[in-house]
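Hi support team,

I'm filing this because I wasn't sure whether my run with flavin-adenine dinucleotide finished correctly. The job status page said complete, but I'd like someone to confirm that the output block is well-formed before I use it downstream. Pasting the exact inputs I used:
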Amino acid sequence: MHSSVVVLGGGPGGYAAAFLAADEGLEVTIVEAEPRLGGTCLLRGCIPSKALLHVAKVIHEVDELGKEWGVEYSGKPKIDIDKVRARKDKVIDTLTGGLGNLAKRRKVKVIRARGSFVNSTTLKLEGDHESIPEGGQITFDHCVLATGSVPAMPPVFDIGSDRVMDSTGALNLVDIPETMLVIGGGYIGLEMGSVYAQLGSKVTVVELAENLLPGADKDLVKPLAKRIKALCEDRVLLNTKVGSLAENGNKVDVTFEGPGKFGTESFDRVLVSIGRRPVTRGLGLENTQVEVNDRGFVVCDKQQKTADPHILAIGDVAGDPMLAHKATHEGRVAAEVIAGKNSAFDAVAIPAVVFTDPEIAWAGLTEEEAKQAGRKVDVEVYPWAASGRAQALGITDGLTKWLVDPETHRVLGCGIVGSGAGELIAEAVLAIEMGCEVHDITDSVHPHPTLSETLMNAGEVHFGTATEIY
Ligand code: FAD
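And here is everything the job wrote out:
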């Protein structure tokens, strides 16, 4: 069988590339090992985690904040874990079903098989699904490599116990353990830790670095760290290493080595969320000219071209940041490049969002990056305590800040912490991409009373004219 374009991997990078290549009039086939399209994002990442985080937020609002606001329900909320899981699964089913239809409508063929390269223009297809063509091979003019990433599980944590989970295991929500250790204070650990803590588990978070969300600006992390500490009843261990895990009956014994904690403690479940690794092993890349760097990522240029003229790479397998929206944009570029257009991935600002409560979002230059680069920037901060909407919502610990070039007054970066930060950051992404100056933001009329006004107000701080109109 031959297909002009073959996309290996049906995640948000792969299906976007496939659909857009089909829209360009190309003949396209997706090779995906799993029964459904959607990849990590839909099946065991962005979407299921956000469905569960929404439940966690509702519990927080009705159970804890409600009391402050004069709305009290009797007793603790009763969690029906089967219903919580079923709702999350229904969201996944709806979206993956939609993808199947979108593929059909575009006449994109989907082969359910594990693919590996025989050479630069042929994939071997392994599996027993009826969609696999006779001969078990497909040839192509171009292949888009979109095999994504999987959770990193170093041998020291990989003890063969189902009490030790990665993010996929945590999203399965088998039970609500009484005690749970989250190893890694990055965004996935904090999102999943928040869900379990809000559902009733006693969660401990351990992080090797001195702060949660290492790499993010400290002022953004501060309100979240406070909330996580409260949610975990002070069990946040920083600067602390986990030395070993050992199954012990119904528990996992964990040894800690660090100022946060020394010695051993037992947990009902352990979530290992210390990062993800790109999927390049077992793909037969040695049979092609594709190059892989020392971190395991496929090397490609701004047009997503690899060293092999027949193969492009996109998404998590093609490098940081490992985010769905970056994968999708790279998928678009790959499709257009294959169609002969002069496209390139040239984003100035790829937003990052941590969907905890409060949310954290940033785009463009961060204060940490500016400091490291020795770049002088004006940092204009607007605290949400001065926002009428934030006061009404009871979320006054948020802040919005712009990083501004002191000479050109252009906005270079934006950081937000607070409810809905992930939605608010989109305005900043547009402003940074368009090379806006601060006055472009302050001169744009923002609706009142909204949290979006804080973007305008933070801009006004630059001119010393912030108006606090409650
Ligand atoms: P993937 O989505 O990983 O898809 C790769 C596909 O390739 C898979 O379906 C896999 O089965 C298939 N495949 C691999 N090898 C083969 C082979 N040999 N043959 C056939 N098929 C193969 N990102 C965000 O932007 N926002 C979020 O809120 C967010 N939350 C997340 C939460 C969690 C818990 C996790 C784990 C991830 C989250 N991510 C989030 C990251 C996001 O899921 C990834 O960045 C995104 O899915 C990457 O897309 P991709 O297309 O590159 O790869």
